[in-house]
């Protein structure tokens, strides 16, 4: 069953006189429960694609449907509500709120949903447990290591039980060992919690943990096996 | 979300503290100016100002230069519409504008008791009427000069025994010291036997004050000294005319204070939001609505402003309540008093200014381009 569907999506940016069109009528569909990794040269529009799927940016053309909702048709504040309930975003740099503790950071998205405080607490505790940081709940971001911060960021992305989680180079600023931890975690989220994941990465080893590997090149998707074979 | 606002303010506590202090100082001044204006307003309005007249010597201003025969009281009493006439001898330590003006009013003790809206908070009327150098002191003067019942108080040529302290429903009256008429008339240097400074006239219910005033002046034109009779409020405003202009100017000072708080809180909030614009982009990515981001910023600026503003207002009221401040000239005084109206105005102004100061940065936080802000390092 298709969860994410892009039809003829185009996006261009103006830089002075020239116009860059990283995405030119691209189509893509992702099934529920899939873990898709996306590679490709720098500047090909991978982040742009994630931003469009998340509804924090709008395409110039085409439609994007996620879980039956046409996100490209929603107003800015409707989009915010939609994201709160349906989307998790894992940033390359964790982007935690520095004045809030790990617990409070993870709690933020739940404050936007209609939940009782008991349900809320339960969800936050489960999410922190899933990323193995229950004992760091009261720590502030500056008291955590880079890997721990990223895991708090992941807990925040999954706490609202979203339909789809996007991740933009989630291991991009981590050392090999912590990157390993995060990869295992993402795989578990996909397998055990059946979260649909769309992840951008520059690391082919990281890309390999996904169930489907795509490469975006000159506005076209290639199946990675094909690329490897051709190369 | 409240936690987020509070913790953000706490994180930048130096900035928060400076802004709150600045807002407090400005609102302190605002309330002080406000109380002066309230004092002036009270002086020229209300029953005491409108329903009683002051008969003064024509074209004289300072109380020392107005000299009317005491027995004018009889003639005035005969004018229709006049209920009661109280001859008053005024003595003041300073005829020019001053912050520590002492004004004595000498009049018949029984008449004072009967006609003035005053209540003794210590001492008794009996001693006041029986002792020649007895004086009852207005609460404000007592506070300012640290006087209490039983004290001997001397100033210039005058030395009185404080036999009581009084409060009045007319705040300006609390800046007065009452003695008997004869005592002030025979004070050395005044040399005013048979003469008084002014007559205070109380009117009957249905009398038209301006008509009665005109009749009194017409009636006394044939006497030895010509008079000018005005409503008490108008008389006092005229006596204090220099000060009234100054107070009108102070009005602008009040507005300046509000503008100061506005720019201070707005600057702080703009800086705070610009520093954290990426945070607002992250919040919106998580699903915080633009309107909610807007409210978060408004909450921040309003909290800063109300905290500082209420603090300053409270402090001003406390100082006004204990200081017994008054400004006066030529025997008339304006008292600065704390009031509920002032408290409400102070807090309300802080609230409105707080919201206004947050509008620009709030719109910025709400309408930020999420992608652009997130791409910032
Ligand atoms: N907000 C923007 N304004 C102008 N140009 C932009 C903007 N966002 C992206 N671009 C341009 O669009 C192109 C695609 O950007 P994008 O960030 O999607 O690339 P990417 O594939 O994620 O690259 P990387 O692997 O380096 O992260 C780039 O040329 C970039 O300069
Ligand atoms: Mg990118």
Architecture overview:
The complex is a heterodimer of chains A (231) and B (377). Chain A has helices at residues 46-54, 76-86, 102-107, 117-130, 146-158, 176-192, 204-207, 224-230, and strands at residues 2-15, 18-31, 35-39, 61-66, 69-70, 87-90, 164-168, 196-200, 212-217, 220-223. With 231 residues, chain A is α/β, with parallel strands linked by helices. Chain A has one domain (32-58, 74-230): 3-Layer(aba) Sandwich (Rossmann fold), CATH 3.40.50. In chain A, the strands form 2 sheets. In chain A, strands 6-7-8-3-9-10 form a 6-stranded mixed sheet. In chain A, strand 4 (61-66) and strand 5 form a beta hairpin. Chain A starts with a strand and ends with a helix. With 377 residues, chain B is of the alpha+beta class. Chain B folds into 2 domains: 2-43 and 242-374, no CATH class; 59-225, no CATH class. Chain B has 15 helices and 14 strands. In chain B, helix 2 crosses helix 13 (290-323). The longest helix of chain B has 35 residues, at 241-275. The model of chain B has no long low-confidence stretch (mean pLDDT 90). At the A-B interface, helix 2 of A face helix 1, helix 12 and helix 15 of B. The complex binds adenosine-5'-triphosphate (ATP) and magnesium ion. Residues 13, 15, 20, 22, 42-48 of chain A line the site of adenosine-5'-triphosphate.
């Amino acid at each position: 069953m298709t969860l994410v569907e892009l039809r003829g999506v185009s996006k261009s940016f103006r830089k002075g006189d020239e116009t860059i069109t990283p995405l030119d009528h691209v189509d893509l569909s992702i099934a529920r429960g899939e873990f898709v990794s996306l590679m490709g040269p720098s500047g090909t529009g991978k982040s742009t694609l994630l931003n469009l799927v998340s509804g924090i940016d709008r395409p110039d053309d085409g439609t994007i449907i996620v879980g039956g909702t046409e996100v490209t048709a929603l107003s800015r504040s409707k989009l915010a509500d939609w994201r709160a309930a349906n989307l998790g975003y894992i940033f390359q740099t964790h982007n935690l709120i520095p004045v809030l503790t790990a617990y409070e950071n993870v709690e933020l998205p739940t404050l936007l949903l209609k939940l009782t405080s008991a349900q809320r607490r339960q969800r936050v505790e489960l999410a922190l447990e899933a990323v193995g940081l229950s004992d760091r709940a009261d720590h502030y971001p500056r008291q955590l290591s880079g890997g721990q911060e990223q895991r708090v960021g992941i807990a925040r992305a999954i706490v609202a039980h979203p339909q789809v989680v996007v991740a933009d180079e989630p291991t991009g600023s981590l050392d090999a060992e912590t990157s390993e931890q995060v990869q295992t975690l993402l795989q578990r989220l996909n397998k055990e919690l059946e979260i649909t994941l769309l992840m951008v990465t520059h690391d082919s080893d990281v890309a390999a943990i996904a169930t489907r590997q795509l490469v975006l090149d000159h506005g076209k998707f290639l199946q990675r096996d094909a690329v490897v074979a051709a190369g | 979300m409240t936690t987020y606002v509070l913790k953000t303010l706490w994180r930048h506590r130096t900035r928060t503290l400076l802004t709150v202090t600045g807002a407090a100082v400005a609102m302190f001044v605002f309330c002080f100016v406000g109380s002066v204006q309230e004092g002036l307003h009270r002086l020229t309005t209300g029953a005491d100002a409108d329903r009683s007249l002051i008969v003064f010597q024509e074209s004289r201003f300072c109380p020392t230069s107005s000299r009317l025969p005491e027995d004018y009281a009889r003639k005035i009493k005969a004018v229709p519409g006049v209920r009661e006439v109280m001859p008053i001898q005024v003595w003041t330590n300073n005829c020019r504008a001053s912050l520590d003006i002492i004004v004595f009013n000498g009049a018949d003790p029984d008449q004072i008791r009967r006609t003035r809206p005053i209540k003794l908070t210590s001492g008794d009327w009996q001693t006041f009427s029986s002792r020649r150098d007895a004086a009852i002191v207005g609460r404000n003067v007592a506070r300012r000069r640290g006087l209490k019942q039983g004290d001997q108080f001397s100033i210039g040529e005058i030395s009185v025994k404080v036999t009581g302290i009084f409060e009045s429903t007319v705040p300006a009256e609390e800046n007065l010291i009452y003695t008997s008429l004869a005592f002030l008339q025979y004070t050395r240097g005044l040399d005013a036997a048979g003469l008084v400074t002014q007559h205070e006239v109380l009117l009957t219910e249905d009398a038209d004050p301006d008509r009665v005033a005109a009749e009194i002046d017409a009636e006394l034109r044939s006497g030895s000294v010509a008079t000018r009779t005005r409503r008490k409020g108008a008389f006092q405003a005229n006596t204090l005319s220099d000060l009234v202009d100054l107070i009108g100017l102070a009005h602008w000072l009040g507005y300046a204070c509000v503008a100061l708080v506005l720019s201070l809180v707005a600057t702080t909030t703009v800086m705070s939001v610009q520093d954290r614009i990426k945070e607002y982009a992250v919040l919106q990515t998580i699903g915080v609505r633009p309107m909610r981001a807007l409210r978060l910023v408004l909450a921040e600026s309003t909290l800063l402003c109300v905290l500082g503003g209420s603090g300053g207002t409270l402090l001003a009221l406390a100082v006004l309540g204990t200081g017994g401040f008054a400004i006066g000239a030529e025997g008339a005084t304006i008292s600065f008093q704390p009031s509920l109206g002032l408290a409400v105005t102070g807090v309300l102004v802080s609230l409105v200014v707080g919201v206004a100061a947050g509008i620009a940065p709030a719109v910025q936080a709400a309408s930020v381009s999420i992608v652009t802000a997130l791409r910032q390092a």
